[in-house]
Write a structure and sequence with these properties.
This protein is α/β, with parallel strands linked by helices. It is 41% helix and 15% strand. It has 11 helices and 6 strands. Helix 1 crosses helix 11 and helix 2 packs across helix 3.
Length: 230
């Protein structure tokens, strides 16, 4: 059975994958942890992209595995793959943050930092992703964002999203599926194209009528693409 090891988006948790894992069904061994500092977990002792990459590799274990990363989790998956861990069979990058510094204005970064533990601002951030979420799904996403440990929140916005590991990831030699939505207001149209262009074995697929939060908004379409690719 194919093992899929998941790393969720910034502000998410293990709950971010529930609908997608249900769509994938029993044919996959899905390992769905909270990224440290998110959900119910405390932040790691060292908040760095390398430390999060090591965490993902350790979480995967010894069996052959695919890394599935959404947004922030995609960059963690890229950093893990750049370490050439044994058993890594491929990557699924969903609306992924790039290996290079994520395009973000200083004003947008400051606004995101100020949104910490603020329900109103968290709601607006999620509504501005280009994804149209049912009210009950949006509520879970907002609740998850309010559970993020502050060190993890600040790490991603101040450091992790700015790290440039493109030189290291250019040598990744496993199959990579790059999925993006055509209404993604977080990454825009250029980032997924640049990610795919920077990886020698990448395939890019754009889902129509979809925003940034693909696993929450279009789990059926994402599961279909993953199953076909893997």
């Amino acid at each position: 059975m194919t093992r899929l090891v998941f790393a969720h988006y910034f502000g998410g948790s293990t709950r971010s994958w529930v609908a997608l894992v249900d769509e994938l069904g029993a044919g996959f061994d899905c390992v769905v942890p909270d990224v440290p500092g998110f959900g119910d977990t405390p932040p790691p002792a060292a908040t760095s992209l390398g430390a999060y990459a090591d965490w993902l590799i350790d979480t995967a274990g010894d069996a052959p595995w695919w890394a599935v990363g959404h947004s922030m989790g995609g960059k963690i998956a890229l950093a893990a793959a750049a370490k050439r861990p044994p058993g890594l069979a491929g990557l699924i990058l969903i609306a992924s943050a790039p290996a290079f510094a994520q395009p973000m204005t200083d004003a947008a970064r400051a606004e995101a930092l100020d949104a910490y533990a603020n329900r109103g601002r968290a709601t607006k951030q999620l509504e501005d992703t280009g994804s149209r979420l049912p009210p009950e799904v949006l509520k879970v996403a907002v609740d998850d964002e309010l559970r993020v440990a502050e060190p993890a929140w600040r790490w991603w916005l101040e450091t992790g999203s700015r790290d440039d590991i493109a030189a290291a990831t250019a040598a990744i030699d496993v199959p990579v599926l790059v999925l993006a939505g055509d209404r993604d207001e977080v990454m825009g149209p250029d980032v997924p194209r640049a990610i795919a262009a920077g990886l020698p074995r990448a395939e890019l697929h754009i889902l129509s009528d979809a925003g940034h939060l693909l696993p929450l908004e279009r789990p059926d379409a994402v599961a279909e693409r993953i199953a076909a690719f893997v």
